[in-house]
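With this grant's support, we have settled on a layout for protein records. One resulting record is reproduced below.
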Amino acid sequence: MEKKAYIIVGPTASGKSAYAVRLAKKVGGEVISADSRQVYRDMDIGTGKVTKKEMAGIPHYLLSVADPRRRYSVARYQRDAARTLQSILVRGKTPIICGGTGLYIDALVEGTFLPSVPPNPALRKKLETISIEKLFALLKKKDAARAKSIDWHNPRRLIRAIEIAEALGKVPRMQKRAPEGIKFEWIGIDLPDKKLKKKIHLRLLSRMRGGMLAEVKRLHTRGLSWKRMESFGLEYRWLARYLQNKITKEEMLEKLELDIWHYAKRQRTWFKRNKNIGWV
């Protein structure tokens, strides 16, 4: 008999986490997070990590499982999430995969088999000094096919793709080993532009009042470099620049809010390609 799991996707600030909790209460579910920044410990306010109160007693997995000073790869997420998925099913519960990182969700649900290429520290150090535009141009030269599908706004993914292309000659076509015996129901959560922009604005103000700046200071004090902070993007990038006196507070808030909106639009673009998603 085929077992069922739900996948809740959509742009940031659309209300995915709250929807997942409501659904979990209805179907006897447990939530697997699919967020590439929420896997890291002590990055709570800036990533919008669901709180214990918001969980309302529903178990959540793959939150705060990694040291932010160390890279948590898509391949590791795929492995950890697949094990969690099976564990939930074995206990007779319903898995609910919830998040906005499309690459993570595809790796888990479609069983995408990722190439096993070890990190190249020397190459990464060199590539980290290059602008996003030049990184994208370099990947395009090495592997035009991968360049067409990658999120070129994400320097970590560009560097990883170049790293793989350097090792293998090109980024190989991803093979698929989808989980068997599971029927996935895709649910998309979104809002009209005006409402989503307002939610992004109000959420940013709430996070600032809630101690997001102190969180970033604390991370740096505990050994997270500004350079590493920059790689996480969005809140951590702009707050890090502000704390280094590279921009004013007003500039930081303005650029951050715009950056979050652009990120939300990229998420929409990623998920709109998936015709299995039923939007609510």
Remarks:
- The two ends are 28 Å apart (CA to CA).
- The mean pLDDT is 92.
- The chain has 13 helices and eight strands.
